[in-house]
Amino acid sequence: MAEPDTSRWRLPDLLDFDYYVDRDEQRMRQEPAERKHLAERDRRLYRERIAPRVKAPEHTPAHRSAALRRWLGIRRGSEDASIRALLPGSAFARGQRLVAIALAVLGFLGGVGVASALLHYEGDQPVNVSWYVFVLVILQVLLLIATAVAWYARRSHTMQTAVQDFSLVGHLLKPLFGAAARWVQHQRLAHVPPDVREHAKARKGLLSGHFSLYGPAAYLPMLIPAQLFGIGFNVGVILTTVALEWFTDMAFGWGSALDVQPGTIHTLAHIIALPWSWLFGDGLGVPTLEQVQGTRISLKDPLFIMDAEHLRSWRWFLVLAVFTYGLLPRLVLLGLSLLTVRRTLAALPFTHQRTQALYARMITPQLETAGGTGHGPEMPIPGPLSPMSGPRAAPRAQPVSPAPAPPAKPPAAQQPSAVPDEAAPTPPKPAPRPAAKPPARKSGSAPAAKAAPAPKPAAAEPRAEHGGTAKADKAPAAAGGASAPREQAKAPSQPSPAAKRTPEPSKTPPLAAKRAPTTEPALRSAPPPAAAAAKAKGALTIAPDACLLLMHVDVADVLDDSDHERLQRLLHGHSGWRVAGSATFGGGSTMAKQALTMIKAADWQAPPPRVALLSDGSQPPITETLRFLRAVRAAAGEHAQLLLVLVGDPDGDDPLPPLSPFEFQDWQSKLEQLGDPYLRLEMLAGPAEETD
Amino acid sequence: MASAGRVRMPRRQGSSDYQAAAPQSVGEAADRVPVLAIMGHPNAGKSSVVATLTENDRIAIDKRAGTTTTTDEYPVIIDGRPVMMFVDTPGFQNPSDILEWFQAHADEPDLAGAFVAAHGDDPMFSHDCALLRPVAEGAGIILVVDGSKRIKEKDRTEMELLRLTARPRMAILNNLSNISKHMPAWQDALNKSFNSVREFNAHRATYAERLALLGALKAIDQRWEPMLDETIRAFRDDWSRRIEASADTIIQLMKDALTKRVTRIVKVDDIKSDDQREAIQRQLTEALQQALRQLEVEAQQDIRGHFRHNVWDLPATSLLAKDLFSEEVEEALGLRQRQLAMAGAAAGAVSGGAIDLGLGGLAFGTVALIGGVVGGALGVLGGAALAKLDIQRTLGVERFSLGPVTNSRFPFVLLDRVILYAARAMNWAHGRQAADEQAPNRVPDKELGRKRGFTESLTPDDHRTLAKFFAAARKGKEDTPHEEQSREIIINILRGLSTSDLDARIGL
Questions:
Q1: Model confidence pTM above 0.90
Q2: Interface size, chain A vs chain B, as Cβ–Cβ contacts under 8 Å
Q3: Domain range holding B490?
């Protein structure tokens, strides 16, 4: 079985993909040096064999999906043929087929059983049509309606409830697939040459028997077999009915203890027969009124007084009813299921944290850090950080102009009580904040850190324009001094001056509560800032290969310009992302809300969003930290790629030192408890980075 | 000394009733037992501080953050009466939220209590409520911060929120590393919000430093002064009691060691050759050494018990981990040859010892001397035999007997080693169990000028006294004046060690 040249995912591919990613991860964990080898290998595969065939632009979901699929194809293609047959994917496919066939056969037998029970005919009493219709038509239609409702609910509610809808079926069927796949693998293993068997056994994870899918793909394996069961059932019913009618002269009838007029029954039958009455009309596909009258079973009348032709008249009605209401919808559902599987697979975001690392390896240029400056020739220089570079990338006058620019968001967010309306949906329940808060706070601690939130996002907005085209930004970036942004960051250390700097004089009343509602209109009315502001609103446009960087204040405090450049380079190395904008967090709920607002307000090209968080790893994570991560997840969406990079405590000149493995493990173990599969944790600078 | 109250420091779990032992009546604040809540963020070293202050090495301490998850109480009990209480709390988990809540409810008279009341049911705040509860109930605050790290946002938040609680508070700069560049910044920042700021290395703190810290607590709330004075006095008395008990143990060890004798009776017929005779001698020597080692181990356990150490590992490089009769020990401890000769001469009539000493002095470091009549090269110490072998033959049996120890170096080596052990026991902080001894930036143990023992630096007079005591002990004489003097000498050494007048030679 040669590898097809395709970018399309099938279910078994997901399992194989998981297996390979897992294997690489294990290798890296056991041998840190492998990291480099894998990076080289994946980059090479990508450049030589994947990039030429994938048309979509990098960092888009389409590209990610196609590139990863091709990567899998290459990995699988380089596998020995005998091993390939043992891969979890092919075993799973075979297992799924087995289960599907088994279910179809089971359904068929069930159908035969039910139909022959319902059509049980002794010859003294006609078969009662009503039961047949009730069980095989009405019940099935109800079932279909229930399925449709569930399906609709899945569309309208969040994904989670949908998964719950399917989890019932899932719990019943899932183990079945795993068991079948394991069995298949086992059987195959028994039939391969001994050396291959040993080889396969030595491979960790190959035979571990994990056949589980996660995320939106989790319920997919169930869809088709479930429909096959239904089809088998209906086919069984139809064939049995036809066969019985064929081989026995059956009498059908209806009866009731109530005073039901034959006309009513006739009308009902006609309603049921609507779909086919145009083709098989009265007397053939549906009994005539006379026939209906003639097949009424009354207790005392013996069978022979009835007209034989009348008694047979129901036969095709029954077959056609089951065909129309049982078989056809199932066939449609099967088609829909196939379509759904295909579409779901095509839409998989591949933003799982493990996948993030692989994708980053593929698209990140290989960088030789042999003591050089780190600027390899093919290295695209990441766009400068927004808050710092805003003033820097423009003329000196700029530090003044950004202030009017962002009247919409940042000042609003910065004023404590203006915030809640925007950040309401974030999960943590922050304590309500009175307007009196800032003065209370400043008495305690140094203002520098507190001041940070105000100017940073403010400066972020003008940067938005640069976001897309940031590659050329390098030169001006170098031109600007380090001092300008720093000053700017420190200057408005009191919240009030910052607030006063907002453009509209009419809005100066410091009553923060009032400002909140006015923010929106102001955004539209004020002409000169409007352009910038409008941009700011939709405007932090985040290109497909860019991300939002959230920095912990502790780290942001010690970074200066050259560090930002290095930070972005390192970040690019981990993720392949440039930095389109940045914000700080870790300084109270206001700052957190601001960052979250930024995530939500940003215009994400090629969603799901990409958020990188930079944090000080030398302090163990506390609940507060984890809650912020949750809030970010909530703001960014379920499948958004989150990358949490940790730095150590600066000791000496290096503001971005590596973290001790112990501290990293501590974080790892705590983040694992979050159970967020799309959150990736990395050290910003590995020990190897030290040398450069 | 015996009149001094016994200090007990048990541990009680759970926070519900931690003031049960204290007089509860409101308004009698002066009579109330000072309760001090040790606070800080996870991994700041709170438990280490508590362990060291209360000499409790059973407190679970781990390098990983978040080991302490409940509020545990460690009362100090003197003669059955609690005089103060330390409360070990979990770390802050949501400092920003607490601070923001405090600021939002600034007019609340009891912020901590109100916060606990408002958030008591929220599992998200369980740690925060647990740590604020003692404060709500009137405890003073000891904030522990890690002085080796930069001041972070979280630290500022915690300082500020503790300031808002308006309780008496002190900050401990627990710097476990040798990174001191952040210390001035810490001092400045802490001084703004705390009544008192002290440096305190929970892994290295000595007895003297511990007492100094307790003394400083008086400054943060004057009402506690009587209780704290009493506590400090009790600690002092307890300490001298421990020193005297240790000195007794040491004296006893010396007497036991110097009278130890091993014998073996063999039928003459069974001894076929000289080889066998030598084998018996070897066995006897081994038995004597083993007996002496055993005595030393028992004495060490005693001393360890005096200083309340339960969990304690010795680094393999320490002299204490080496065999008592190994070369390293013998070289590093005890007296120099000349000192020994003079002390020995003063001790006078030590028969075999003197001869051995003279010969040993000549032969030291050159050849192994065959000591005594039939001694052989076994059990040699400093070139001299450990003890004399005595063989008596009567009625068809030979009675081999080895001992008591006649080697004049040995008692000084043994004494040095047991004092070294005591020094370590006294100065080994109870909170040190989780210390990362391999960390590159840990505080180095004091450099040793010379790797020598304690006895060497005593005066010749003391040497003579000790030598006389040893000689008397060897003869089994009890309660000689030299014994009392030797005890004084040992007590002086131990006192010097605990007040840091003497180098504890931890690194040995």
A1: no
A2: 97
A3: 259-431+450-498
